[in-house]
Amino acid sequence: MSVRLDHGKDELDEVHEINVTPFIDVILVLLIIFMIAAPLATVDISVDLPSSTAQQQQQLSAVLEQTTNGDKQTRIFLRADKVVPYGELMEVMNLLRAAGFLKIALVGLEKTS
User: Fold this and answer.
1) Contact 20, 2 (CB under 8 A)
2) Which of 61, 73, 105, 113 is most deeply packed, by most CB within 10 A?
3) What residues have CB less than 8 Å from 4, skipping those under 6 apart?
4) pLDDT tens, N- to C-terminus, the chain (113 residues)
5) pTM score > 0.70 for this model?
6) Terminal-residue alpha carbon distance, the chain
7) How many CA atoms, within 13 angstroms, populate the side-chain half-sphere of residue 30?
8) How many angstroms separate the CA atoms of 107 and 84, rounded?
9) How far apart, in whole angstroms, are the C-alpha atoms of residue 113 and residue 72?
């Protein structure tokens, strides 16, 4: 409440200024509510995945050695879609480089208009 007390007059003049104190109080209360509610909104669900009984596959370098007859200059074409994480793609490229295959080509699909 913004009122000026002046003892010289019998009537009080109104002050035409916005009092922002209640606005700041409301914003601080909302901030506290969101700070408490935000961590509670994230839910972690533990998932027990079954163990795999599949046999281990051959190593990538051994398969490439057999397929290319040991020619390290053969160009290897690597293709991945949008759902493959970038880290996994880089891991495969690092495995190819470690195996000695330095000519790696990334395959992209052309869009038809």
Assistant:
1) no
2) 61
3) 12, 13, 15
4) 556 555 656 666 777 788 888 999 999 999 999 999 888 877 777 878 778 787 766 688 888 898 999 899 999 999 888 888 899 899 999 989 988 999 999 988 777 76
5) no
6) 66
7) 6
8) 14
9) 38
Residue written as token pair 């007059």: 9
Q: What is the total residue count of the chain?
A: 113
- Provide the 10 A C-beta neighbour count for residue 99: 17
